[in-house]
């Protein structure tokens, strides 16, 4: 749709950088058919009602009051209500109601309050600029604006604040990323600087400080997808657990045990708070505030050794979750040799699965197969396992035009855990796909 449509904000709002609500006022003429109130029930579900009537707005509805209680007005879309459509509607009324309705037009003054969020946002942009999508986390609306939309940030924020009743705070993501804990820096655009909020996801409630921890509502289906793979025989190691979007539903799924880690102490604080908030048995989960490399080489090593020495281990499946797509691949070499000198052999197969998330970037348009191949190559090079087979390569989402997010699931062979760690081993990650990660990569222990 465009500003030329009748039911669209006036062209005077296009390009505004400061919100002036009076500019959204527009006088429109809307065609109607007048019918007896007692006949409404007979046409409410008729095809003509869905096909030609006006879209519900704030004060305007497909069926409205007439001057008397005995009659109703059926309002039609003024941009599609041609003479041909009018005749078709007339014939339908004659057939359904056995009457010839009175047609006319009615004037309405539409104001800022009448236009919905989408109309308001789309109407202010020129043809070459569009808003990046936004997400809502509790009472917080989070924008991630492209460069060309930054000039509109204040008017966008105010419209979001006005049109989303539950929103009290509007923020925009900045390019700067916290180098230690990987949450993004942001600027307040509208509302109050209230960043502690709650969000519900698949029956669980998460409390968080959005200014200090990471949360991405777009990953809710991904959380669910992974958890659906788990059962009572699974032990879960969540290397970058955050506030628990994988760990907590895994416990609800009644997995055997969860070991959850995050480098950000605030994330661990909220993870523990969310354990209490959701009345989860704290004995089912152990939390750690460690670097991911240390968690792998110490905690996973220790716990895996413990389980492998138990007689019941043959029924267990171990799942490692690594949801830090900008960095996770670089942590993979830490698995090498974690059982060296601790376990010599197994009497049964080790079921050890890794779910590793990664971003893949291109410098020009590429088919999806190229992104998939690059993701697989990065994992194989990082592990120094050129023939490693993937159990699944799942496309999580398109981040931007040239950037894709994947989750690669693979099974690490038992021999890899027994291999001696080579201090000179280098992670041969495609530097183009990892260039945005500027912090120091965790080192392997000697």
From TrEMBL:
Location relative to the cell: Mitochondrion matrix; Nucleus; Cytoplasm
Function (record text): Involved in mitochondrial tRNA methylation. Specifically methylates the N1 position of guanosine-37 in various tRNAs. Methylation is not dependent on the nature of the nucleoside 5' of the target nucleoside. This is the first step in the biosynthesis of wybutosine (yW), a modified base adjacent to the anticodon of tRNAs and required for accurate decoding.
Highest taxon in the source lineage: Eukaryota
Top-level EC class: transferase
InterPro entries per record: MeTrfase_TRM5/TYW2 (IPR030382), SAM-dependent_MTases_sf (IPR029063), TRM5-TYW2-like_MTfase (IPR056743), TRM5/TYW2-like_N (IPR056744), tRNA_Gua_MeTrfase_euk (IPR025792)
Keyword Nucleus listed: yes
UniProt KW Cell cycle keyword: no
Pfam families: TRM5-TYW2_MTfase, TYW2_N_2
Subunit: Monomer.
Taxonomic classification: Eukaryota, Metazoa, Ecdysozoa, Nematoda, Chromadorea
Identification of the protein by name: tRNA (guanine(37)-N1)-methyltransferase
Enzyme Commission number(s) of this protein: 2.1.1.228
């Amino acid at each position: 749709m465009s500003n030329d449509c009748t039911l669209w904000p006036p062209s005077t709002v296009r390009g505004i950088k400061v919100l002036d609500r009076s500019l959204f006022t527009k006088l429109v003429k809307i065609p109607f058919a007048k019918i007896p109130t007692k006949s409404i029930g007979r046409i409410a579900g008729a095809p003509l009602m869905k096909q030609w009537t006006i879209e519900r707005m704030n004060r305007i509805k497909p069926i409205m009051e007439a001057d008397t209680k005995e009659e109703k007005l059926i309002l039609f879309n003024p941009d599609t209500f041609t003479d041909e459509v009018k005749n078709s509607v007339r014939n339908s009324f004659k057939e359904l109601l056995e009457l010839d309705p009175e047609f006319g037009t009615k004037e309405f003054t539409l104001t800022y309050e009448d236009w919905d969020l989408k109309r308001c946002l789309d109407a202010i942009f020129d043809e070459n600029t569009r808003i990046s999508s936004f997400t809502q986390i509790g009472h917080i609306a989070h924008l991630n604006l492209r460069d060309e939309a930054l000039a509109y940030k204040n008017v966008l924020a105010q419209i979001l604040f006005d049109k989303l009743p539950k929103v009290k705070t509007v923020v925009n993501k900045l390019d700067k990323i916290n180098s230690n804990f990987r949450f993004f820096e942001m600027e307040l655009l509208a509302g109050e600087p209230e960043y502690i909020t709650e969000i519900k996801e698949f029956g669980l409630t998460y409390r968080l400080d959005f200014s200090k921890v990471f949360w991405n509502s777009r990953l809710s289906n991904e959380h669910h997808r992974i958890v659906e793979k788990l059962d009572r025989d699974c032990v879960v190691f969540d290397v970058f657990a955050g506030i628990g979007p994988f760990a907590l539903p895994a416990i609800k799924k009644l997995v055997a045990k969860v070991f959850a880690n995050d480098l950000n102490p605030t994330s661990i604080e909220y993870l523990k708070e969310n354990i209490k908030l959701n009345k989860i048995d704290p004995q089912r989960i152990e939390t750690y505030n460690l670097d991911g490399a240390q968690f792998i080489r110490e905690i996973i090593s220790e716990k895996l050794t413990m389980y492998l020495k138990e007689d019941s281990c043959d029924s267990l499946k171990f799942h490692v979750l690594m949801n830090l797509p900008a960095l996770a691949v670089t942590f993979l070499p830490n698995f090498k040799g974690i059982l060296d000198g601790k376990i010599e052999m197994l009497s049964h197969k080790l079921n050890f699965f890794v779910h590793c998330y990664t971003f893949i970037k291109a410098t020009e348009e590429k088919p999806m197969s190229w992104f998939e191949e690059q993701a697989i190559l990065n994992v194989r090079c990082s592990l120094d396992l050129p023939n490693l087979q993937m159990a699944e390569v799942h496309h999580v989402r398109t981040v931007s035009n040239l950037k894709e997010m994947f989750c690669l699931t693979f099974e690490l062979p038992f021999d890899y855990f027994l291999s001696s760690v080579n201090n000179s081993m280098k992670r041969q990650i495609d530097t183009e796909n990892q260039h945005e990660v500027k912090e120091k990569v965790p080192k392997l222990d000697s």
